[in-house]
Amino acid sequence: MALWVEEATENILKAAKAEFMERGFLNASLRTIAANAKTSPRSIYTRFSNKEELFAYFVNSHTKHFFETFKAYLESLSGKPVQQQIVTREGESRHCLYELTDYLYEYFDEFYLLICCSEGTEFEKFIEELASIEAEHTIRFINNISVKAKEIDYDFIHFMSRAFFDGYFEIVRHRYDKDKAVRYIDKLIKFNEAGWSQFL
Q: How many whole angstroms separate alpha carbon 185 and alpha carbon 198?
């Protein structure tokens, strides 16, 4: 009995993942998921309270890991003396981003769901939240080290942070293989750093 229940759950998750990836959260059908899993919608509801909870099963832990890793990097950086932040920021930001990219490619399908299929869920604001986190730390950093800080404000920094992360997640939208993604990210970082150099 336990093996049958476990197999039924696995079938539901497999069918749900395929349905969400093909149709997105909004257009995904629990009836279709149940049919493809060779079970009933009622069987799904005994495991998940609604469609969003089923979707969250695939992305929630990975969203948290991405946020926590990124926040830990920013907090570590901001806790250092200003001069050390200036010296280490570029190298440490690259290291953090490549670490996150390694994680992303370990769970690529889940990040595809998060970036491309999450409209209509709480997760659709993932990139916006990343940009807000980055912008808050960046404004503090610039205010500490730059005499040109008066030339830019939070809105501009948020806009540029959002643009960076939108660009970064193109590797998911276009399903780049990892080698191509790393080359693309390296160019994106260089372009971003060149732009910020005008204000620092």
A: 21
